[in-house]
Amino acid sequence: VETQEEGRAIYDLVKEKLSERPDIELTGQVSNHFANEE
What we know:
Layout: H1 4-19, H2 28-35
């Protein structure tokens, strides 16, 4: 990931896909990484 914006876009895309598949959970590392920036 080259930029924070790119990372955010990928994160949002992954979250959107995961919302369609509740059997898969986002890793804590990724969500914590972005939660700490806000």
